């Protein structure tokens, strides 16, 4: 029986401190206390909730998923009680605006909680994350009346939210959305069908606030004709109106709206999370309220989408951490092979096998690298919101725009690779049964939803790099180079004082520093070539976007490991955490940073090799 998920508090705290310094979050007025004793108390509470409440339900929900009944969606045994505990302990409120009942803590602390919820129970974690994203969209774009009515219960977790975008014919192409909204006094009547709606209906909370993309009569074709509507599961009543018999407790909420889950998807993973087909308006019209300006719905929804994309990266990091924990525990317990080939010798644990150690180090280096990069994005978000001075906030917002697609795509790809390695370490046992196979199945959704990873890559290259002529990327590459030179300097300065064995081990740090400098220079040159050629080669960005994202991600993760190595070198020599970080930084420099060369070669190939074969010949 595997042990429950344990939040890796020492690594989480190291990543928080590193991200705060790198992004400048620790200099924001009022954040000093949040990163001191407050952070320790929050992280301890996160660890307890993840370990004691959420993790034990992970396999329960996989074995007995959510199901649709005549009265709505029923979640697996224990989920309702867990959600009540989650809300009673105040977890939905930690980063929400104080004006609406939130605690207003930095997003960087929220990132640690989000990762841990995902690692303990990804299906459960997806529910509160959607509400957090909805709060952000409504805070920025909803009318004051809608904010006052809907944000406080969303912040407290009394209500949850869903994002209703995709339709059966549309997939990721939202320009073909057909759901219609007709004006009806102060509100609108909506009709249509939405698919793949995570937590679109359930029994955890009294109300679900759906944010729905729809067209209005006479709207322009394509993306410019889409508007955003708030469509609650349960409708508000006018003051003084008697509550219907099937209404909710209280005088202001009453009858069911005309939006219903009509079926649930049967999925390979995240089986406890109800993925709903939602029907709107089959009994007269679902009542909704416009959010933001008419025909600007997609822009308004990006606040929620971008928040949830960071959430995917953080959840995926948690999934990768869980895979590593399971694989490491199994590698210590499983005995196979004999020391020195002696047929009479005792069998040894497989963690002593060099290739098992290679896989475990790969898992650990990728997972903590992904964690550090995602936390850096969260810290950058804090600066974009609360930094000192408009120039600092604007610079952070530009950097965050570059980081968001990178974190979503890279961290979710890492989770799939790390979970796959976890199954490999378990061998046949992992493939036949056990939580590690569930972790692998759960991880696979990350690269798909909230915009596939190719969509993220195209957004990164075409909109975030080419559109601003590489200015934001250049700022970031220069920052990475400074970290590489710092590591190189420390490595060179300390080497004469080290024993020969230590100097040999630190070859990985030398490789990390030198490799980062070389890759930054090559990335800069490649970006310039792509920017210059993009005007005359319309398919160029689409052809090389994915390897470009992977290349930048490998380098950016190497940058995070350079920062971690610099911090670790400053710690006491007997510090176990520092030794572990240095070991992983060396491993990353020697074994994982060289992957950048493969991605660089693919970017250099351009469009010709990719587009030469005719579709029928592929």
Brief overview:
This protein has 618 residues and is of the alpha+beta class.
Structural account:
This protein has 618 residues and is α+β, with helices and mostly antiparallel strands. Among the domains are: 9-141, Butyryl-Coa Dehydrogenase, subunit A, domain 1 (Orthogonal Bundle), CATH 1.10.540; 160-295, Butyryl-CoA Dehydrogenase, subunit A, domain 2 (Beta Barrel); 452-610, no CATH class. The chain is built from 21 helices and 14 strands. Strands 3, 4, 5, 6, 7, 10, 11 and 12 form an eight-stranded mixed β-sheet that branches. A hairpin with an 8-residue loop joins strand 13 (335-338) and strand 14 (347-349). Helix 10 (354-386) runs antiparallel to helix 11 (390-426). It is globular, with a radius of gyration of 25 Å.
Specify the overall morphology: globular
Largest sheet: 8 strands, mixed
Given the helix and strand composition, which structural class is it? alpha+beta
Mean pLDDT: 92
* Portion in beta strands: 5-15%
User: If you compute it from the alpha carbons, what radius of gyration comes out, rounded to the nearest whole angstrom?
Assistant: 25 Å
Low-confidence stretches: 242-252, 496-502
Q: What is the straight-line distance between the termini? A: 46 Å
**Proportion of residues in helical segments:** 55-70%
Number of DSSP strand runs? 14
Task: Note the total helix count.
Answer: 21
Furnish the topology, listing elements before pairings.
Elements: H1 9-23, H2 31-34, H3 37-54, H4 58-63, E1 67-69, E2 72-74, H5 79-88, H6 107-120, H7 122-141, H8 144-156, E3 159-164, E4 180-184, E5 187-198, E6 207-215, E7 226-232, E8 234-236, E9 253-256, E10 259-264, E11 275-280, E12 286-291, H9 297-333, E13 335-338, E14 347-349, H10 354-386, H11 390-426, H12 428-432, H13 435-443, H14 453-466, H15 471-494, H16 500-505, H17 507-534, H18 540-569, H19 576-592, H20 595-604, H21 608-611
Parallel strand pairs: 3-6
Antiparallel strand pairs: 1-2, 4-5, 5-11, 5-12, 6-7, 7-12, 8-9, 10-11, 13-14
């Amino acid at each position: 029986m595997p042990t429950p998920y344990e939040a890796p508090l020492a690594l989480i705290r190291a990543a928080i401190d590193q991200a705060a310094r790198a992004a400048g979050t620790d200099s924001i007025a009022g954040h000093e206390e949040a990163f001191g004793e407050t952070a320790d108390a929050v992280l301890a509470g996160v660890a307890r909730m993840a370990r004691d409440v959420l993790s034990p339900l992970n396999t329960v929900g996989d074995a007995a998923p959510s199901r649709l009944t005549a009265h709505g969606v029923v979640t697996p045994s224990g989920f309702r009680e867990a959600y009540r505990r989650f809300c009673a302990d105040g977890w939905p409120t930690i980063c929400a605006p104080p004006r609406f009942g939130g605690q207003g803590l930095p997003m960087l602390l929220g990132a640690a909680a989000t990762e841990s919820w995902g690692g303990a129970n990804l299906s459960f974690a997806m529910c509160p994350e959607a509400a957090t994203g909805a709060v952000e969209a409504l805070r920025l774009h909803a009318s004051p009346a809608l904010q006052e009515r809907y944000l406080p219960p969303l912040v407290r977790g009394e209500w949850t939210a869903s994002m209703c975008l995709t339709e059966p014919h549309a997939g990721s192409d939202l320009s073909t959305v057909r759901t219609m909204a007709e004006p009806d006094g102060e509100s609108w009547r909506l009709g249509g069908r939405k698919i793949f709606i995570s937590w679109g209906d359930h029994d955890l909370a009294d109300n679900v606030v759906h944010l729905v993309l729809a067209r209005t009569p006479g709207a322009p074709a394509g993306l410019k004709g889409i508007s955003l509507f708030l469509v609650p599961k349960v409708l508000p009543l006018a003051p003084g109106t008697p509550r219907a018999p099937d209404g909710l407790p209280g005088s202001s909420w009453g009858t069911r709206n005309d939006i219903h889950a009509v079926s649930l998807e049967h999925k390979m993973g995240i089986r406890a999370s109800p993925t709903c087909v939602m029907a709107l308006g089959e009994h007269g019209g679902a009542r909704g309220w416009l959010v933001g300006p008419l025909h600007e719905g997609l822009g308004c929804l990006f606040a929620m989408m971008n928040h949830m994309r960071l959430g995917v990266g953080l959840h995926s990091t948690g999934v990768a951490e869980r895979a590593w924990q399971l694989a490491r525990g199994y590698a210590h317990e499983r005995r196979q092979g004999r020391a020195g080939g002696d047929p009479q010798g005792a069998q040894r644990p497989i963690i002593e096998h060099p290739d098992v150690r290679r896989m475990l180090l790969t898992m650990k280096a990728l997972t903590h690298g992904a964690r550090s990069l995602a936390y850096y994005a969260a810290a950058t978000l804090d600066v974009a919101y609360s930094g000192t001075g408009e120039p600092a906030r604007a610079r952070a917002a530009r950097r965050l725009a570059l980081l968001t697609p990178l974190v979503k795509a890279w961290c979710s790809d890492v989770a799939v690779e790390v979970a796959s390695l976890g199954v490999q370490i378990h061998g046949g046992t992992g493939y036949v049964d056990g939580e590690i196979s569930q972790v692998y199945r759960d991880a696979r959704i990350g690269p798909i939803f909230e915009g596939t990873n190719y969509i993220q890559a195209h957004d990164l290259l075409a909109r975030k790099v080419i559109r601003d002529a590489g200015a934001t990327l250049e700022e970031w590459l220069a920052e990475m180079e400074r970290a590489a030179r710092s590591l190189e300097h420390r490595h060179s300065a300390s080497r004469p004082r080290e024993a020969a064995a230590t100097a040999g081990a630190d070859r990985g740090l030398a490789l990390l520093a030198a490799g980062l400098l070389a890759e930054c220079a090559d990335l800069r040159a490649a970006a310039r070539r792509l920017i210059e050629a993009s005007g005359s080669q319309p398919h160029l960005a689409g052809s090389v976007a994915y390897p470009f994202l992977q290349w930048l991600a490998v380098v950016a993760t190497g940058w995070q490991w350079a920062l971690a190595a610099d911090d670790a070198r400053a710690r006491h020599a007997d510090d176990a955490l520092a030794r572990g970080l240095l070991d992983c930084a060396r491993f990353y420099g020697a074994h994982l940073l060289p992957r950048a060369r493969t991605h660089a070669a693919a970017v250099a190939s351009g469009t010709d090799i990719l587009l030469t074969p005719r579709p029928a010949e592929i």
